[in-house]
Amino acid sequence: MSTVFDPPRPWTASYAPGVPEDLAPVSGSLMDLVADSARDFPDAPALQFFGRETTYVQLSAAIERAAAGLRARGVKKGDPVAIILPNCSQHIIAFYAVLRLGAIVVEHNPLYTPRELRKQFEDHGAKHAIVWSKVAKTVQEFPEDLAVETLISVDVTKGMPGYMQLALRLPIPSLRENRRQLTERVHGATTWEEIVRHAPLDADVPGPATDDVAIIQYTSGTTGDPKGATLTHRNLLANAAQARAWIPQVTRGVGTVVYAVLPMFHAYGLTLCLTFAMSQAARLVLFPKFDPDMVLAVTKKHPATVLPAVPPIAQRLLNRAKEKGVSLAGTQIGVSGAMALDSALVEPWEAETGGYLVEGYGLSECSPVLIVNPVAPNRKAGAIGLPLPGTECRVVDPDTGEDVPQGEAGELLVRGPQVFGGYYGKPEETERVFLDGWFRTGDVVEMDEDGFFRVVDRIKELIITGGFNVAPTEVEIALRQHPAIEDAAVVGIPGANGEEVVAAVVLDGTPEFDPEEVRAFVKKVLTPYKAPRRLIVVDELPKSMIGKVMRRQVKQQILEKLNG
């Protein structure tokens, strides 16, 4: 069994002009990203939060002060430090301040339930936490064995311009409600302002090494249970370098704008906003949540050079721009990930912006980006693209591990400088996802004659009905083509022939719905055995914070309706 590709790799012939086949090994740490940008572009805006700007030299100084404040409260090299924050300027400072001490960032979703947060704290055992004031009480109520020794509460409104902070204190019901949604009074915790009030960290305090763990990124992985992927400074530096190499037309420094509409606790938002943007000395515009009107207001003055997004965000932004008569011209590169990008969205987006909308693919275990469409005329809608420079890929039979012929479907195996070393405290889980040094993604893909990859589906989500494999994504795409259906999620439900293909569908405002007519429609698009045996109408599909349908919850929702 071959485990090494001899250059040139088959996909490199399709690379855009100026994109290298390989990159030099990285060195240093993530701290160098901010330090280099502060040295080269000290007065350039690094962060923009509700209009308030922070320059690179100001950001660097704030990181050093925050690191000193954390050190004074006992944070030391190797300590896991939980960060539970929305997108805000304090998030960026906290992230790099933790890393400056050689400690480990553990990112968390601030909208998690207490149970979900406790489960992750049980795994990583962090005794220091930097949290949104709205979440502080949840952490304070952890049981004694999970008690956090250093709890730092962050009031995100204090990162806003002064006039906004004053306005939120006015006795006006709407402003009071806005303030209530953004912040909460906390007792018994250190404030973020106390942390950043310190003198800068002593220059002789050592920073992290290249192969130190930088973050623990939680993921469901390929077996369904949440696990913490340990990503080193090397992994994340390499992925940022690969992203820069992929778009050589983007100039580093003043004028480069990146929109942080994706949550930075998610691996996708973390890499493109927290690391890539800083390495580019870009203006990072922070949005605590996706609001198309807020994004359009910024677009008028600072259109995005790079807009990391998911298809629902791109679609909503496009629709709202047309409704309000706001031009998206100047938005250069939309990067879509986390779910399949419908080719029907690409053409109107590119016509409106004059730029590109390209699909990419990655996993938390891979920092996360592995494969992206070229930002060039040869990009292929419907494909996830080409492996990034220095990334090796194989397509194998998931049962035997043997390579399959080009063009046939198989499991995607990868290796490269961005691929993680293992799950935190889970050696058996780590061993399970590697095959002779190659990471098993758990995704079924095909590679065409030009080296472009297309995802067929997740191995664990394939539906086996009557001995045939059915890819849920393929059926969902077919269902969405029906004029009565706005959205759909397909799962396998136990039945007489193994599993039945069942779909949860959201209707597009139609007063009449004929399931048999929809099934007949799908059979014209796909092989008949792939058509759903049953269609369940729901008001909405359960989705993650980035808009990805959560099929496990869909399955539970369907079972409850069928058994109710």
Automatic annotation (TrEMBL):
<keyword id="KW-0436">Ligase</keyword>
<dbReference type="InterPro" id="IPR042099">
    <property type="entry name" value="ANL_N_sf"/>
</dbReference>
<dbReference type="Pfam" id="PF13193">
    <property type="entry name" value="AMP-binding_C"/>
</dbReference>
<dbReference type="InterPro" id="IPR000873">
    <property type="entry name" value="AMP-dep_synth/lig_dom"/>
</dbReference>
<dbReference type="GO" id="GO:0016878">
    <property type="term" value="F:acid-thiol ligase activity"/>
</dbReference>
<dbReference type="Pfam" id="PF00501">
    <property type="entry name" value="AMP-binding"/>
</dbReference>
<protein>
    <submittedName>
        <fullName>Long-chain fatty acid--CoA ligase</fullName>
    </submittedName>
</protein>
<dbReference type="InterPro" id="IPR050237">
    <property type="entry name" value="ATP-dep_AMP-bd_enzyme"/>
</dbReference>
<dbReference type="InterPro" id="IPR045851">
    <property type="entry name" value="AMP-bd_C_sf"/>
</dbReference>
<dbReference type="InterPro" id="IPR025110">
    <property type="entry name" value="AMP-bd_C"/>
</dbReference>
<dbReference type="InterPro" id="IPR020845">
    <property type="entry name" value="AMP-binding_CS"/>
</dbReference>
